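Forwarding these from the shared drive since the link keeps breaking.
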Amino acid sequence: MALVSKGRSSIRPLLFLAPLAVGSLAFVPPTQHRFAAAQTSSAPPTALCSSSPDTTMSKVPQWFQHEISITAPSRGCHLITSDITKAVKGDISNIKVGMCNLFIQHTSASLTINENADPDVRRDMEVALNKIVPGSWTKDGTFLHTMEGEDDMPGHVKSSLMGPSLNIPIRNGRLALGTWQGIYLNEHRDQGGWGGGHTRSIVITLQGTS
């Protein structure tokens, strides 16, 4: 798998979470709002949330973003977990609790998570997708969008079925994947679109607290 990094941007912090107003908040159910004034109690209101400035500032999320290009060797499902972890290695270690979002910038490729051990799983996934959305639909009149080849419109459908993005929790500086889980790049075209290859761009966004 060929991997090309397109750079990294760091925004620390991107979002400031302002402390809530001094005091506490009381919740009055909507069905009781007409009687709220008449039923005011001398008991202190129930606080929904409270925080001190020091606590809030220490929990401001850190944000990092990368863009990488991965060249799939062929049509099918390809394991790219190591490519992703390599790209974020320098930043993810700063995050104790957070989230990693992966987004592929294409309409005939997709991302998913599945077994990382037996390569037959990836082969069988491709076979199943081809049965779900057969290329013959381009020839029998099922599809109207056929100008880009037999694999193009089926690739669009498969991309929407599998999805363009993933959210993976970050725990103690690592992706919290299960033992047998791996990240797949699913290449749904033989020719890889207009470019004639199979190079796909993936944006990786990390956010979380240390």
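-- next protein --
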Amino acid sequence: MGDDLGEEWWTNEANSDASGVDEETEQEERPTEKPNTQTKHEKRKRVAEKTVKAKKKKKNEQKEVINPQKKETNDEKSAKPKKKRKKKKTITDVLASSEPKPGCPADLQNLVAQYFSDKRSVIELEELQLHDSCFLSSNDLTHTLSSYLKQICPKWSKIQKQHADKSSVVLLIVCSSALRTIELIKQLTTFKGEAKAIKLFAKHIKVEEQVKLLQKGVTHIGVGTPGRISTLIEKEGLNLQALRYLVLDWNWRDQKLRRMVDIPEVKVDFFKLLEGGILNGCKDDKVKIGLF
């Protein structure tokens, strides 16, 4: 029986052994392939994680670099002293730091020339210039209103008796406001004597009422604002035929240290009043101007 088996038995065993070995090798090779695929995925994940971490690190480093610069600039700004803006000096600031100077005829002449410089020709500006004889002595800041008027009108008692015209005054005092008008009328008590004074301002008093008051009887002194006086002249409620003295409340200043001619709206009315017959009266030597 051993002979009958022959060579086929050995070959079959060899083949079976070889096939067994092949199966084992295949089985061994298959599990090795799986971990290779897993390692590739893991490597990819690791690489991706590393790149993300690297980007985050770069961003953090950039922030760390930028932030100290900002801090330095802020520190520098805080260390630098802040420049204070220079305030523009107003009329009030200038006058508060300077001593008051009494007005003079040259001040009025210069103001007239300046105001009408762009409104009149050269020839007309020359005509507006007043002669020195048109002016009375100015207040040197030592006078009260009564003492100043006694100085410029020494014959007042005689003048007031001669005046008998209605709707006109002999003495006209021009100031900036209604309150100032009332103050000046109070200061007239020691000067006016038996003369009658009238308030000429717009506050709480209608033009018609003032026209009636002027027409009722003889009025010697008028005290008021340039706006209302100009309106009365335009409406023929007040005429300048009997006017002999024009006193300007030149040196008085309000709470903001402004003179009458420094207040824009009053300044316009003031020059309107001068054009309304005052300058012509001065040229005809009928009206004299005094700066109080």
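The chain has a mean pLDDT of 80. Residues 2-79 form the longest helix (78 residues).

- D.
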